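cron nightly-structures :: item 1 of 1
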Amino acid sequence: MKFHFRLDPLMRQRKVDRDTAQRIYSEAQNAVQLQMAAIKKLYAEIDEARIFAEKRQKTPSAGAAALVQADEFIEGQKVRIKAARERARELMMIAEEKHEILIQKMQDFKVLERLKEKKQIEFRKEKLKQYNEEIDDIVTMRANRRGGV
């Protein structure tokens, strides 16, 4: 007799759900990382604009228009950074929600996994008990045959 766990179809579905939740969470984490990289890029562009403005300021033929333009660019970048940070916060919240869903799916699968392990142990014990009973019956029949002849 072979072990058959009657909740195997449910367990397979829970595993698929867990794997799907893992993929969705990874995608959400990736979106957060991309947004953080975009923010770093915006800061790097501000640094470059400051360096440009500093170099222009040191030259005698520096045009005030170029300095004003660099300053306006920096102010515009600050606005973009603020918006990018807000978007990053939203993405982090979404990623956290996806993580909570993933944890729940993992727990659901783990419960069934533990139940299956318990049922397998019970099955093995029952099978061993049946095997021992069969051995006892065989020994008893042999003893009865020898004693009866």
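cron nightly-structures :: done
Residues 33 and 59 are 40 Å apart (CA to CA).
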